[in-house]
Amino acid sequence: xxxxxxxxxxxxxxxxxxxxxxxxxxxxxxxxxxxxxxxxxxxxxxxxxxxxxxxxxxxxxxxxxxxxxxxxxxxxxxxxxxxxxxxxxxxxxxxxxxxxxxxxxxxxxxxxxxxxxxxxxxxxxxxxxxxxxxxxxxxxxxx
Length: 143
Known about the structure:
This protein is α+β, with helices and mostly antiparallel strands. It has a domain of 67 residues. The chain is 30% helix and 29% strand. It contains 2 helices and 7 strands. A hairpin with a 5-residue loop joins strand 3 and strand 4. The mean pLDDT is 79.
């Protein structure tokens, strides 16, 4: 509750803050490495200024950064609905009541790839529907 106002800061485009208890995660997206670095530094400065104004301190030993390729942002609400944004070739927005935000590794054309489980399961289901439609096209329906 103490850090809830931190989550309301106006951040640069493509940036989000997530919080759990007293931990805050800053998600920074951009088109280039320089864009991400510039936005990331701006978000860090905003968080530092906010914590100083509220007599709080950030523990540098608990801070880390991770670079994601094929990035994913996901959040689950109390009703069990997962909202996810994942970047493959373009942005993919997904809602699911069945899946969490776990990743699945699968093989395609001899190489291992990793995608969110809900995307892999959806693609497998689409393949069956496509095959079913293809088979129906070969057989005319009798009335």
